[in-house]
Design goal:
heterodimer, A: alpha+beta, Ubiquitin-like (UB roll), Rossmann fold, 3 domains, eight-stranded mixed sheet, six-stranded mixed sheet, 16 helices, 26% helix, elongated, B: alpha+beta, Arc Repressor Mutant, subunit A, Glutaredoxin, 4 strands, 11% strand, binds iron/sulfur cluster, binds FE2/S2 (inorganic) cluster
Chain lengths: 550, 167
């Protein structure tokens, strides 16, 4: 393996490593724009130029570190005045036509051009000519706005579409200072993974319409969590505003074992369900009207309704595979010692069409976890959501407790007809969805942005969901609401807090053996031999039968 | 500003059988179909008069490559006309050697005589005037290229006669 020196630090790295990556090993940072570890090398921005020598002979000129591979007896200098002078020159060139509209640019505060400029140049421009005027706020696609003046033509976005999305929708057109990014004439950047180009763009040239003008980057705090959109469970960062406890966006977080640095666009919009249409107050139905009440009052009312059916064939309890494993574990133990319902079901959204990149067809993030818990606790004959609805429709169920309201059908009329057969409908819901609107008692619970817990993805990987904002209004984690309900039914839940639940879960359910939140950590733990790693770059064409979900 | 380089001609374009053969011949020369983009674009320019977005799409279809690849190439090179040109595309060299031998007088003179500035097309659609960079005829300037033909050692009178004698 080649041994080389970077700023005097000797390192040995595998052959084929480029100098940007090698520098990281040596604890040095080489500034970049166009380089991205998951895309091909374009070496067009020249930000990474460094001076160096080989076998003691200095290179005739600075070389792009992203494109230069390590070799024995190389010496690289990443911070001498000579190298810094090159950087200043490159930045001066890149900024000649840059509009400097940072005050109104959403990227401001997390922009690589700002960062590199302040760190490596920070000197006034010597150009006094007029700046080239180009496409501005151009509607390049349904989700994305393009700004040709801010674009530094690094082609990261083009390469993403060519190499990862495998759909050549973007082109770098025209030449020199007129260069801009565009689609084919009359076409748009329209792809289920298009928003990744926004993450990749080092400047504010590609901006998502969803986040545009919503929040300045420096007001955001970042929480490592997991996407609830489907059973892959892409690792994400959830950005929320510190002062107002509101979520603003979801971005992918690099985990080679799950999603790489990518995620699908649908996954990004999931935060809306945690922000909008929330159930923030408990309600009970009185004379056909929903009345907002304190959570305690609602729990008491729920207990009264359910008590008549405990242990009887008329009771059904259903849990959602969007709940944390802790919630599901508590629900399952209560089923054994308290509810003893003759119908127990795992609900969940109806599947969507998966693709051969990230999306898997099951749209529920924790079905694997639910199955493992139910197996371990010996719950037999667990129905799925459709079977549950059929049972309710048949009229044999008289009381239904829905713990989480993700149902295979969102058809209000169908649900209304089904639920009208019930004497009692108690729901623990985060959203004011059909079930919450039709319930006799609705108790608000935390959305995925507000809960701590473990999910198990479709490939058996245990991952950690984290709360980034406190529950809205009177909402509380589902397990707490369940514990409250149990208390009203005269059963004391053994576990005093969430930690106790995790301990019991880890002890009693083999899939979680020996796990704690800390040991699961930010990147999850694989249980079983399956790998969930996504398709790699350059693995060739899409299969013939490949179709993207509608 | 709009991205449209020009208006779409009505309806999709289609290469003639001869043009298709020609493109096949070019494709056969390279290991990779994409490499035939440049010659195919020339064929398109000749067939359709100029390289409109519809012409780019037709090239992409013929080569079986993404439209974006063709658009990148066509917009990069100035010698593909992205807007319609007159019957005679008069390209006058404005580079240094020709300048030393009187290119400025030539450009100015032709401009006046034809009543159009460089970049414009005469009303009757006969001439488009363009000032271009070196035509690689530096030893014999001032030089002019009319469509595919070169003319050298020009004066305003000589150039005008050449243009007026054209069919
Ligand atoms: S839009 Fe952004 S990612 Fe694409 S070339 Fe321009 S600067 Fe690079
Ligand atoms: S593929 Fe699934 S888990 Fe990943 S971002 Fe999309 S919806 Fe979320
Ligand atoms: S990062 Fe190396 S040239 Fe752009
Ligand atoms: S300078 Fe005119 S042909 Fe070269």
């Amino acid at each position: 393996m080649p041994t080389l020196k970077i700023d005097g630090v000797e390192i040995t790295v595998p052959p084929g490593t480029n100098l940007v990556e090698a520098a990281k090993v040596a604890g040095k940072d080489i500034p970049i724009f166009c380089y991205h570890s998951h895309l091909s090398i374009a070496a067009n921005c020249r930000m990474c130029l460094v001076h160096g020598s080989q076998n003691g002979r200095p290179w005739p000129k600075a070389m792009p570190a992203c494109q230069t591979l390590v070799a024995d007896n190389m010496e690289i200098d990443t911070c001498s005045e000579k190298t810094q002078a090159v950087r200043k020159g490159v930045l001066e060139f890149i900024l000649i036509n840059h509009p400097l509209d940072c005050p109104v640019c959403d990227k401001s505060g997390e922009c690589m051009l700002q960062d590199n400029f302040f760190e490596h140049s920070n000197r006034p421009s010597r150009f006094h000519e007029y700046k080239e005027q180009k496409l501005k706020t151009y509607d390049i696609g349904p989700q994305i706005i393009y700004d040709g003046e801010r674009c530094i033509n690094c082609t990261r976005c083009v390469r993403f579409m060519d190499e990862i999305a495998l759909d050549n929708q973007l082109a770098q057109i025209n030449r020199g200072d007129r260069s801009v990014i565009a689609c084919a004439e009359g076409k748009q950047l329209d792809h289920p993974y298009a928003m990744n180009t926004v993450d990749l763009c080092p400047v504010g040239a590609l901006l998502g319409k969803d986040f545009r003008f919503q929040k300045r980057a420096w007001f955001l705090q970042h929480t490592d969590s997991v996407c609830p959109g489907c059973a892959r469970g892409c690792n994400v960062v959830i950005d929320s505003a510190r002062l107002e406890n509101e979520v603003y966006r979801i971005k992918p977080r690099d985990n080679a074992a799950v999603n790489g640095p990518w995620m699908c666009d649908d996954g990004r919009w999931t935060y809306h369900q945690a922000r909008e249409r929330r159930l923030t107050q408990a309600t009970v139905r009185q004379d056909g009207e929903h009345k907002a009440v304190a959570v305690d009052v609602a729990l008491r009312q729920a207990a009264t309704l359910v008590r008549l059916h405990l242990g009887k064939p008329t009771l059904a309890v259903a849990v959602s595979p969007h709940l944390t494993s802790e919630d599901l574990y508590l629900a399952a133990s209560l089923q054994k010692q308290l509810f003893r319902a003759s119908t127990y079901a795992v609900t969940g959204h109806a599947p969507w069409k998966g693709d051969n990149f990230l999306k898997v067809s099951d749209r529920n993030p924790n079905r694997r976890g639910a199955a493992a818990i139910h197996d371990a606790l010996g719950l037999k004959d667990v129905l799925d959501g459709n079977a549950l609805l059929t049972a309710v429709e048949s009229g044999k169920v008289k009381a239904l407790v829905l713990i989480g309201t993700e149902l295979p059908s969102a058809d209000f009329d169908r649900l209304k007809a089904a639920f009208s057969k019930l004497d009692a409908l108690v729901v623990l819901a985060s959203e004011k969805d059909a079930a919450a609107q039709l319930a006799d008692v609705a108790i608000p619970v935390a959305a995925f942005t507000e809960m701590e817990g473990l999910w198990v993805n479709a490939f058996g990987r245990v991952q950690r969901v984290r709360a980034c904002v406190p529950p809205k209004g009177d909402a509380q984690p589902a397990w707490k609401a369940l514990r409250g309900l149990a208390r009203q039914l005269d059963v004391n839940v053994r576990q005093a807090d969430h930690r106790d639940l995790v301990v019991d879960l880890a002890r009693e359910v083999p899939l979680f053996n020996n796990l704690t939140h800390e040991s699961v950590g930010a990147f999850g733990v694989a249980r079983g031999a399956e790998t969930s790693a996504p398709r790699k770059v350059g693995e060739g064409k899409l299969p013939e039968d490949f179709t993207l979900p509608a | 500003m709009s991205l449209a380089q020009s208006e779409h001609p009505k309806g999709p374009l289609e290469f003639s059988a001869k043009a298709k053969d020609e493109i096949k011949h070019h494709v056969a020369k390279y290991p990779d179909r994409r490499a035939a983009t440049l010659p195919a674009l020339y064929v398109a320019q000749r067939e359709f008069g100029y390289v409109s977005p519809a012409a780019m799409a037709t090239v992409a279809r013929e080569l079986d490559i993404p439209e974006t690849w063709v658009r990148e190439v066509a917009t990069w090179y100035t010698m593909y006309n992205k807007v319609p040109v007159g019957k005679y595309h008069v390209q006058l060299c404005g580079n240094i050697s020709c300048h030393l031998t009187g290119a400025d007088k030539l450009i100015h003179g032709l401009s006046q005589a034809l009543g159009i500035k460089p970049g414009e097309t005469s009303k009757d659609g006969r001439y488009t005037l363009a000032e271009v960079e070196c035509l690689a005829s530096c030893g014999s300037g001032p030089a002019m290229q009319v469509n595919d033909d070169y003319h050298e050692h020009l004066t305003v009178e000589k150039a005008l006669k050449i243009l007026r004698d054209l069919p």
